[in-house]
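Aim 2, interim progress. The first record below pairs a target sequence with its structure tokens.
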Amino acid sequence: MSGVVKINITEDSETLQTLLSQQKTSQGFERVQALYLLKTKQVETVQHLAVVLGRTRVTVQRWLRQYRQEGIIGMLRKKKSPGRPQAIPNWAVERLRQELQEPEGFKSYGEVRTWLQAVLGVEASYKVVHSTVRYQLQSKLKVPRPHSIKQHPEAISTFKKNYHLS
């Protein structure tokens, strides 16, 4: 008969049923369900299995090919996407952490951005620099507020001695 699945499922139906109940993701559930339906002979062809599962025939064939090559473990393995690369590489973040611990430090995030570009050759936007310094490195660019040139140091110390919080 054309389209009949020629696959040797090594697990028995009870094992597949327990695996089916243990699945935490819909992806794993569908794949184990496909094997269970084939093992219990509820479906005969890949096309019929695809209709029952609500997937395309090519998707089901890809699952079965993966099962043939890697077994049930390989079929249920979750693949992790590497994601987008960081704008500031890890080595540059470490250098920035060391530089932020220096007493002179930076006055602004723009200055950090300029330092990254001039010294390390790393181009990053203001937003990326701010989020890296403030949230990833948990550092603040605190600088003292400017004082008037005309202000007398004795007057400041006298004020601090005499000022009482009520």
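The second target in this work package is listed in the same format:
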Amino acid sequence: MFRILESCCNRKMTGMDDGVRVRSIAREDLEEVGTMAGQLVRYHHSLDAHRFLLVDGVERGYARYFASQLEEPSTILLVAERAGKRVGYAYARLEPRNWNALLDEHGALHDIFVVPEERRRGVASLLLEEVAGRLAALGAPRIVLSTAVQNTAAQRLFERHGFHGTMLEMTREL
């Protein structure tokens, strides 16, 4: 099934920078993608250190976890490249029904990250649309994601791609 998804969904979007290529993550990408994932974790941790976990070696941990997911048919791991340089990644999964969250089967976008110098150049949109296409091909009826309340740029991106608010997570320290 994974090979079919490779051939049917890796497409170029019109109106976007066609110097960017989105493809499935390969083993040789894992270290650099782990570094980007660490940047994403550190960003969230800087917003709220009590809510967002940060552990030593987060980059290596992400690289190891993503390596374990490379052959999982329900996992989507993408990297965006410009001129041979990795400039972003996305991680999504087809998730089963979750009674605790009151969610039926769905696609979950867990991570999307673009290096700072490539932001607002269409890279995140390319990654997001590739994720959507692949999740649709896996049979996902919808995509669910979470974004930090303070990350208004990401919220605007998601809204431009048809997402709307459904829940607001709240925390209280004890």
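The chain has a mean pLDDT of 91. This observation will shape the mutagenesis plan for the next reporting period.
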